[in-house]
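PROTEIN DESIGN WORKSHEET
SECTION A - STRUCTURE
LENGTH: 180
TOKENS:
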């Protein structure tokens, strides 16, 4: 219940309370929208690559994962490529992280870090890292799957911490610490 003094508050205080409530409501709605869009992204679940399936799909001319078309899209920096496309491209063994990183360094030193070729090379390198990180989390129970030992070293160097890897050729678990 309001007392007589509370019922005669100046109009400015009511406007202040209304603005404060509206700001809080705006922040809550913004957070809800951001969280909904984050959940609408692709499933972030990690999965072990199925090398036999990948080898079969990248050779099929009718497949959306055909190696030549994937490589062409990758070199054009096609932003509609999904994680599955990137997994097939990387785990087919056609493109490696180490070679993408070398290309990034070469283009950055030649054209400058902010140039278009260096930006495209950076995008390609980040997409390959996305493919590798979709295979595991780098822990002992869920190692990251890579196609070459150089890729394991490059990933550990970029991440800056020891990670667990499973290299395709050896199928043995190895721990790699970053280069100093």
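SECTION B - SEQUENCE
RESIDUE ASSIGNMENT:
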């Amino acid at each position: 219940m309001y007392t007589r003094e509370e019922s005669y508050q100046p109009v400015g205080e009511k406007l202040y309370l209304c603005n404060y409530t509206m700001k809080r409501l705006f922040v809550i709605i913004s957070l809800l929208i951001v969280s909904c869009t984050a959940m609408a992204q692709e499933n972030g679940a990690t999965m072990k690559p199925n090398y036999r399936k990948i080898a079969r799909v990248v050779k099929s001319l009718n497949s959306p994962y055909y190696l030549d078309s994937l490589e062409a899209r990758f070199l054009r920096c096609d932003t509609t490529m999904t994680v599955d496309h990137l997994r097939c491209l990387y785990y087919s063994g056609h493109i490696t992280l180490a070679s993408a990183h070398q290309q990034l360094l070469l283009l950055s030193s030649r054209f400058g870090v902010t140039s278009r070729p260096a930006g495209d090379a950076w995008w390609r390198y980040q997409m390959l890292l996305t493919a590798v990180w979709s295979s595991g989390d780098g822990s002992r129970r869920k190692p990251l799957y890579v196609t070459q030992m150089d890729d394991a070293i490059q990933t550990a160097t970029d991440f800056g911490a020891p990670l667990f890897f499973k290299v395709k050729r050896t199928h043995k678990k190895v721990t790699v610490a970053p280069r100093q």
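SECTION C - NOTES
The longest helix spans residues 11-40.
The two ends are 69 Å apart (CA to CA).
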